[in-house]
C-alpha cells in the first residue's frame, strides 16, 4: 500500500489469531497478511509457537512473524482496541451483528482513519471463536461460504479479509467519516461497564427467573453496537451507581453498609 | 450456491492447476473451491498426484479431488473452453489484458450464463504460468498484492478468485443483508423510552446539581445512535422499571404507593 502515511494507519490494525493449533497456519496467515500489504499480527495462547513450521510457511514474511505480539489471553491482546471484529463461519443467533468481509473492510478503514486501534479475531482451526471470545466483538465477519461446506482454512479466511481490506484501501475513496466524532470506549472499559451492569441487575432483582445469560447477551450486543464514547460510559456508570444506591437503601442498608434504621432521617 | 440450476451453470467452470509441485496445495485448493460452492478442478501434469497429502489438506473436500480430471498438457485440459483466464501476480507487459478478481468474476459469470465452458488457470508455485501457457489465455487475473511482497500461496490465490466468483454469483440480484436484522424501534417508542429514562433519573436522584438537559441530550444521542430494536427496548424499559421499584422502596414506599412499613414482609 503506497499511499502516504499508510504505515501509520495500518500499524493500528491487528490480525489476532486466537488459540491456533497448528504453527504452520500461523506462518501461512503471516504470509497472507504480508501479501496484502499489512503487518500487524498478534497471537493469543498459540498451542505451539515459536515453531520452525511457522517460519517455513511464512515463506519470506518472517518480518511479520518476528514482530508478532504473543498474549496469554484475548482481553489483554485487544485492551486498547476500539473496534473488534470476529471472523465466524457460523450464524450465532442473536449474539452479534454480521458483516460481510466487504462491509467489515469499510468499517475497519473508517475506524483506522479516525486514529483507532482495530482488532480482527480469528479463532481456533477446529472450534473457531468460543462464546466468551465472540462476546468481546462489536460485530462478526461472516465470509459467505457454501452452507454445506463452510470450513475455510484459517489462513484462507485471513486472506479473504486482508484482500477486502487491501481493495478498500486502494479504492481510497476514503470511507464515510465516522458519524460519531468522539472515540468509542476501549474494549477493557466496555467490559468494566458490563460487569457493573451485571452486578446492578442482580441488585435490583431484575432477572426473576429469566436467564441472566440471555439478557446479558442482548445487552452486550446492544452496547457493543452502540460503541459508547468515554463520556457516555461515565454517565451510564453514574446511572448504575445511583441505581445501586437505591437498591441498597431499599434493602434497608445505607450506602456505607450500616442498617438504614440506624440513621435514616 | 442455492439458486436453481446452479449445479448446471457451475459445472461448466474449471479451476485448472498447472504443473503443481506440492500435492498439499492441490488439496488446499480443492478445499478453497468447495467452501465457495464450486467443484470443478482439473490438474495438468501435477508433479505428485494422487498423494495422501492432497487428501489430508482437502479436509473433507475429497469429492472435489476425486472428481478432478488429470491431463497431460494444458491444451487438452482447456480444449472445450470458450473463456480462459490465467492468474498471475506479475505484470506481463503487453501480452494480455489484466482483470482484477472482481472484474474477472463478472466476465466468468457472463460466459457461464451464456452456456460456455470456462477455465481459470493457476500456474506452478514457484514459476507461475509460463509464456506458452499465458498465450492460451484470453486475459490475466491480477490479484492486487503488495508490490514488495506479492507471493500469494497457490491455494490462497484460488481462494480469492473463488470468493469473488461466489460474491458475484450471490449478488445475482440478491440484496445485501442489513447489518442489523431486526428493525429499529419506532421514533414514538424511543421517545417513550426517553420519558421513562428521564423520570427514573429523577427518582434515583441522579442529577445532583448537574444539568438534566445536558445529560438527557447526551443519553438521547447515545440511544438514537444505537437504534435499539423492539426487544432491546423492552429489556431497557424493564431495567428502568426495577430501578424505579428500588427507588420507591428506598423512599419507604411500596410500588403501589403505600408506606413500606404497612406491609414490608
TrEMBL record, chains A, B:
Class of the enzyme per the UniProt entry, highest EC level: transferase
Domain tRNA/rRNA methyltransferase SpoU type: 13-163
InterPro entries: Alpha/beta_knot_MTases, RNA_MeTrfase_TrmJ/LasT, SpoU_MeTrfase, tRNA_m1G_MTases_N
Catalyzed reactions: uridine(32) in tRNA + S-adenosyl-L-methionine = 2'-O-methyluridine(32) in tRNA + S-adenosyl-L-homocysteine + H(+); cytidine(32) in tRNA + S-adenosyl-L-methionine = 2'-O-methylcytidine(32) in tRNA + S-adenosyl-L-homocysteine + H(+)
CDD domains: SpoU-like_TrmJ
An example Gene Ontology biological process: methylation
E.C. number: 2.1.1.200
A Gene Ontology molecular function term of the record: methyltransferase activity
Compartment list: Cytoplasm
Pfam families from the UniProt entry: SpoU_methylase
Keyword terms of this UniProt record: Cytoplasm, Methyltransferase, S-adenosyl-L-methionine, Transferase, tRNA processing
Subunit structure: Homodimer.
Free-text function comment from the UniProt entry: Catalyzes the formation of 2'O-methylated cytidine (Cm32) or 2'O-methylated uridine (Um32) at position 32 in tRNA.
Similarity remark: Belongs to the class IV-like SAM-binding methyltransferase superfamily. RNA methyltransferase TrmH family.
Matching PANTHER family: TRNA (CYTIDINE_URIDINE-2'-O-)-METHYLTRANSFERASE TRMJ, TRNA/RRNA METHYLTRANSFERASE
NCBIfam families listed in its UniProt record: rRNA_methyl_1 (TIGR00050)
Entry protein name: tRNA (cytidine/uridine-2'-O-)-methyltransferase TrmJ
Chain's gene name: trmJ
